Amino acid sequence: MPEGGAMSDAAPKAATDPGTSTGTSTGEGAGPTLAVGRRAGLLVTLVLGGLTATPPLSMDMYLPALPEVTRTLHAPAATVQLTLTACLAGMALGQLVVGPMSDRWGRRRPLLAGLAAYVVATALCALAPTVELLVACRLVQGLAGAAGIVIARAVVRDLYDGVAMARFFSTLMLISGVAPVVAPLIGAQILRATDWRGVFVLLTGVGLLLAAVVWTRLPETLPAAERHTGGVGEALRSMRRLLGDLPFTGYMLTGGFAFAALFAYISASPFVVQEIYGASPQTFGLLFGVNSVGLVLIGQLNGRVLVGRVRLDRVLAVGLAVVVLAATALLLMTTGVFGEVGLAPVAAALFVLMSAMGVTLPNAQTLALTRVRHSAGSASALLGTSSFLIGAIASPLVGIAGERTAVPMAVVQLAAALVASACFVGMCRPWTKAGAEGAVN
Fold it and tell me: Of 73, 72, 154, which Cα lies nearest the Cα of 111?
């Protein structure tokens, strides 16, 4: 077994070798299969990066407007935070549907249908007159946006194996990482010219652009011969097989609870930074962008330096340890153990926590997907659904004590990081190579 642990130092699958062209059609209106060369590979990378940027765009561009939404819709902060929870829950549940659909009908058609629904739902968010209707529209927006998330991961699994897959995920993190860097900044600038509804108007335009690019530029990556034809029953059996594999489930839960720590930050930070520490929306956007830069840079260190040289289990273990330490520091600061602290030390601890996600999240996903030979859509759906559902549960918990304390955020982050670490140690057994031997299906 190579040093990469569960990862073999594999090149991309044969279908994606530079210079190889598969110009055949998958039939049934699915569009051309991927004609791969360096130029096509770069284009597909950019499209997949755009698809994975949909969640941070939908979430983060809206974050600076949360306090304004509470005022204009006359709703409490905990209720407004449900607009984040609804979108996240929708993205989680939608993946359970879209993942198996993409295994049966290919990647293009479910993706295009999801993007069309995303555009409609986002436009309705801009028109919502009450917080209850906004929550409902955000749920539909999340359900539709799930297509981009789950199918982008499935396409990567179609094309890559082993270390190459880990490196590609790190590349996607660089591309999609631009979204959380610029999204709050854009959202804050929109608030200078208009109200929070303008954020959703812009997101509608982004959805239209992405749908047009996918329609014209993203080829089919799942040939007809490799698709499942068993319907819902076969999809459920496939998911049951995946969940029956202890290492796969362990990596899934590890990534899910790590994402919960991340989402606790996403949900609570607008109130912590702006309401507790008195920062402006522009300052919040800047701090959020700096934290996202840390995540992207560590992700690139992971993909370009660590992958292939250090076992991914070891890198994942270090990432989890750093998250636990950062969350512990935040809890000590917010509970007053160090006395009165300003925004700077809290922001520093959040930066460390966010940066550690650059090795934690992609490696957990890669190690899980390496267990899967077929049913990449179903596996991707389980990974995404678990992460988004756990994150959706974390969101309202961070506001349970009101808007004037950051203690719940730190408690949720530390608890989630500890559970993630326990799942990793207890289920993945990183000190052995058991999880590296063989795939589920």
Answer: 154
